[in-house]
Amino acid sequence: MPLSEHEQRMLDEIESALYAEDPKFASSVTKQRVGRPTARRRLIASLGFLIGLAMLVGGLMIDFDIGGLKILSFIGFLVMFGAAAFGLLAPKHHGAPDAGGRSEGRGGSKPHNGGRSSFSERMESRFQRRFDQDDH
């Protein structure tokens, strides 16, 4: 559900106040976003999760434990957890925004999504336009 004009103005005011109050923090927050995982990364995470699940269930079926701990099941759980973390915590594939508000990724300064700019790029360009209008 999109924001109303009033909510969008409030959000823009909060953002501009954050940039004015602590620009170092604001730039560090915008740079540390987690990106969407690629298809290959999702496939690897899915396979790892399934292998971990098979180990977990197989460890319960096999009567092998050390000190009352089902080792194979525990390792399977760790594999599942690692695969889920690997799939969810994908690094951002775009570079950090430069001073002009553009993101430099693999293809230069053009956006990767068919000519449309990302949400953060649009927000930064709006902020820059407002900042430029306030100076004049």
Give a summary of the structure in a few sentences.
The protein has 136 residues and is mainly α.
Q: What topology emerges from the helices and strands here?
A:
Blueprint: H1 5-21, H2 23-31, H3 39-61, H4 71-88, H5 119-135
Helix pairs in contact: 1-2, 3-4
Question: Whole-number radius of gyration?
Answer: 23 Å
Envelope shape: elongated
Coarse structural class: mainly alpha
Total strand segments: 0
Give the amount of beta strand, in percent.
Answer: under 5%
Query: What is the tally of helical segments?
Result: 5
Fraction of helical residues: 55-70%
Mean pLDDT: 76
Element order, helices and strands?
Answer: HHHHH
Integer tally of domains: 1
Runs in which pLDDT lies below 50 for 5 or more consecutive residues are: 94-114
Largest sheet: none
Distance between the termini: 35 Å
Question: Could you walk me through the main structural features you see in this protein, from its secondary elements to its overall organization?
Answer:
The protein is mostly helical and 136 residues long. The chain has one domain. The chain is 62% helix and 0% strand. The chain is built from 5 helices and no strands. The protein has helices at residues 5-21, 23-31, 39-61, 71-88, 119-135. α3 packs antiparallel against α4 (71-88). The longest helix has 23 residues, at 39-61. The protein is elongated and about 75 Å long. Residues 94-114 have low confidence and may be disordered.
Key words describing this protein structure:
136 residues, mainly alpha, 5 helices, elongated
